[in-house]
Design brief:
212 residues; alpha/beta; nine-stranded mixed β-sheet; four-stranded mixed β-sheet; 34% strand
């Protein structure tokens, strides 16, 4: 049985994420205090809310360095929604805020477009960044067709400095944003797999399988 650490910094969706991994026969531990990589096989950083507030809570709970050390250990890391955004270098949400810098890039506000509402809420498909995307079949999206719908709730989205780190893309009108990111053992989804029914559970199972 794989053991999953879920970072608890009071940013929502913890129990939905925990139940999803328990359904996949994983041992789950919610952590609010500093930890070591030896405590689990995988780590998940979930989250809902504002980037700056999320980083402030991680800092106050002494969790930033343990998260970075877990990522440096080579064990799989998954950021979900706000958790994915905080994996990046910075965000422009309510000012400029520094992130965990595990994936180089910046989190940007979705552009205003006629007939589209922000926040972006609902089911949208994820597609490869291009036809030759090398990461689609090696990681979270293994076994998926070239498009699959997942559930989104967000107003900001990351832009990776290196296009190779943007494994999956989603369209918001004329704008395409990174909805699945990967840099080495660090993964992120802008959507909520724990709210995406069978498609989301399959993605989380792929994440568990990465741990071997």
């Amino acid at each position: 049985m794989k053991k999953v650490l879920i970072i608890d910094y009071s940013a929502g969706n913890l129990f939905s994420v925990a139940r999803a991994f328990e359904y996949l026969n994983c041992g789950v531990q919610l952590v609010q205090n500093p930890f070591t990589p030896s405590e689990a096989d995988l780590m998940v950083l979930p989250g809902v809310g504002a980037f700056g507030e999320g980083m402030r809570r991680l800092r106050e709970q002494g969790l930033i360095e343990p998260i970075r050390l877990f990522a440096a250990s080579g064990k799989p890391v998954l950021g979900i929604c706000l958790g994915m955004q905080m994996l990046f270098s910075s965000s422009e949400e309510f000012g400029l805020h520094e992130g965990l810098n595990l994936i180089p890039g910046r989190v940007l506000k979705l552009p205003v477009q006629p007939g589209l509402k922000i926040p972006h809420i609902g089911w949208k498909s994820v597609e490869p960044i291009d036809e030759n995307s090398p990461g689609w079949e090696r990681g979270l999206l293994n076994g998926y067709p070239s498009q699959r719908d997942f559930y989104f709730v967000h107003s900001f989205a990351p832009r990776a400095d290196d296009p190779a780190h943007a494994v999956g893309m989603t369209r918001f009108g004329d704008y395409r944003f990174c909805s699945v990111a990967k840099r080495n053992n660090v993964h992120g989804t802008q959507f909520h797999p724990e709210k995406s029914k069978e498609a989301g559970l399959t993605l989380l199972q792929n994440f568990v399988d990465i741990a071997g």
